[in-house]
Amino acid sequence: MTKLNSLLLFAGLTSATLVLPSMASMIPSVALASAHAEQKTKRVPALRDKVYSQLARAQKLADDGDVKGGLAALDSVKERASSMNSYEKAMMYNFYGFIYYNENRLSEAIDAFENVVAQTDIPESLTLSTLFSLAQLSMANDDYQGVIDYLTRWDKVNTKAQPDSYYVLKSQAYYQMSQYQDALAAINTAIALAEKDGKTPKENWLVLQRALYYSLQQPEQVVAVIEKMIALYNKPEYWLQLSGMYGEVGREKEQLATIEAAYQQGFVTSKSDLRNLAQVYMFNGLPYKAAKVMKTAQAKGVVADNVKNNAFIAEAFVQAKEERKSLAYFEKAAKQSQEGIYDQRLAEVHLNLEQYAEAADAARAALEKGGLQHESNAYVALGMAQFNLQNFDASILAFEQAEKHKRSERLAQQWIKYVKNEKLHAETLKQALL
To answer: Are 368 and 406 spatial neighbours (Cβ–Cβ below 8 Å)?
Structure first.
């Protein structure tokens, strides 16, 4: 199983983007005919033309950019509040809320709208719309418990089916309070309602649903949500996240296929994503592709020319049995590192390629730099290189150093015995030729 760094995106997920209520949704149209009609059916006090005209004047001033004038006009109306009925007061505070909201003075807007619902004998539609607006404003004001409280009050008044926006807002608030199960139940309901009506769930709903499943450690559900997000919205980041989640749940073949498809579509462009792609290739036994991805990215300047990346490319080429191609990258890594590990690897590759003088030089460089996790490996490489160069004494000396290390003691002893025999054989042959 392999995980991509893109999974870290989930750790910082917040709720889906909050869309604040529009002016139209927060401030119901005030038409005298409809007001009188509602008065007859619900016994709502009349909204007199004189009061309405004053409120309309205040709103027009604010709409025209004269906020100060609009508030002054409302203050003038408020001075005669004692002679106004509950509906007229409610509409006055409604206009106050409108202006404060438009000025992003959220706390004052909330106070104004609270005064709206505090009035008795007002239309049910105004109560519902105002309570919902208060819930939205509380969300914008980071008062998440307030959101739930206002929605609870809204529930007590509402007699119709809840709209999907109700469940989305509730889910956002619960998410921010880390009440993930409640949040998930709400967003699932919103999505189900939309799909039942043949509508496409909004993207930010799915973002929230995905974050909730991830927070609840339900990776298979996260996978299902991201698959839906790709089908509906097809954004590059969703392909990368899906590949990462496939790795999370152990579906390595799908992980490889998904990130490779993303690469072919030009979605894999950042250095971290390119390195992730290379790691997935390596994990799936495709080291040559891993090396090629990193090499190309490095050539384009996307991936840095540093020790870590050069060593990765070199090792990928070794695993792909392209050892000659690995040499240049091991050499760069060795020059960039103050420790001898990459000189040691370079010596081992040179040995495999039967480049014994180069192997001996690299092994000596590794030992000189030091910092080796297994110093004995460098002595073994040096001993083997010297042996093949017919430098028997130097070879024996190197293997004697390797013999001091427990992990290579037995191997070194075998080589010492073998080199001594070969040295004796060579000397005997040389004497016989004299």
So the answer is: no
Taking Cα atoms as reference points, which of 179, 165, 103, 175 lies closest to residue 133?
Answer: 165
How would you write 113-148 as a 3-class SS string? Answer: HHHHHCCCCCCHHHHHHHHHHHHHHHHHCCCHHHHH
pTM across the whole model: 0.77
3-state per-residue secondary structure call for the chain: CCCCHHHHHHHCCCCCCCCCCCHHHHCCCCCHHHHHHHHHHHCCCCCCHHHHHHHHHHHHHHHCCCHHHHHHHHHHHHCCHHHCCHHHHHHHHHHHHHHHHHCCCHHHHHHHHHHHHCCCCCCHHHHHHHHHHHHHHHHHCCCHHHHHHHHHHHHHHCCCCCCHHHHHHHHHHHHHCCCHHHHHHHHHHHHHHHHHCCCCCCHHHHHHHHHHHHHCCCHHHHHHHHHHHHHHHCCHHHHHHHHHHHHHCCCHHHHHHHHHHHHHCCCCCCHHHHHHHHHHHHHCCCHHHHHHHHHHHHHCCCCCCCHHHHHHHHHHHHHCCCHHHHHHHHHHHHHHCCCCHHHHHHHHHHHHCCCHHHHHHHHHHHHHHCCCCCHHHHHHHHHHHHHHCCCHHHHHHHHHHHHCCHHHHHHHHHHHHHHHHHHHHHHHHHHHHC
Q: What is the DSSP letter of 239?
A: H
User: What does the pLDDT look like over 185-237, one tens digit per residue?
Assistant: 999 999 999 999 999 999 999 999 999 999 999 999 999 999 999 999 999 99
pLDDT digits 0-9 by tens, 126-160 = 999 999 999 999 999 999 999 999 999 999 999 99
